C-alpha cells in the first residue's frame, strides 16, 4: 500500500496539462475541433468510470486506501465541474451571438 501525497498528484496533473497544451500549440497542422471536444469529454467519462470502479472496489474490500478513493472521486468531480462550466460559457456565448442585431 503506497501513500498518496496531494502535492505530488497536483504536480503530476499540472505537468500533464502543460504537456498536452504544448503538444497542441506545437502541432501546426489543422486540428478537428469536434474530435478534440469528443476526446476531452471521453477523458472526463473515463475519469468518472475509474472513480466509480475504485469506489466499488473499496466497498467490496479490494481497495484499502481511502485517500486514494477520495482523491479519484475529487479528480472526477473537478473534471465534471470544469466540463459543465465550459458548456455553460459556450452556451452563453452562443446566446449572446444569436441576440446580436444584424
What's the layout of helices and strands?
Blueprint: H1 6-26, H2 33-60, H3 66-98
Give a quick summary of the entry.
This protein has 102 residues and is mainly alpha-helical. The chain has three helices and no strands. The protein starts with 5 loop residues before the first helix and ends with a helix.
Overview of this protein structure:
This protein is 80% helix and 0% strand. The protein is an all-alpha fold. The chain has a domain at 32-102. Helix 2 runs antiparallel to helix 3. The model has no long low-confidence stretch (mean pLDDT 85).
| Low-confidence region ranges | none
Distance between the termini: 63 Å
Largest pleated sheet: none
Radius of gyration: 18 Å
Helix content: over 70%
User: What's the number of extended β-strand segments?
Assistant: 0
The total count of helices amounts to 3
What letter string, H or E per element, gives the SSE order? HHH
Structural class: mainly alpha
| Overall average pLDDT | 85
The 3D shape can be described as elongated
- Please report which band the strand proportion falls in: under 5%, 5-15%, 15-25%, 25-35%, 35-45% or over 45%: under 5%
List key phrases describing it.
single chain, 102 residues
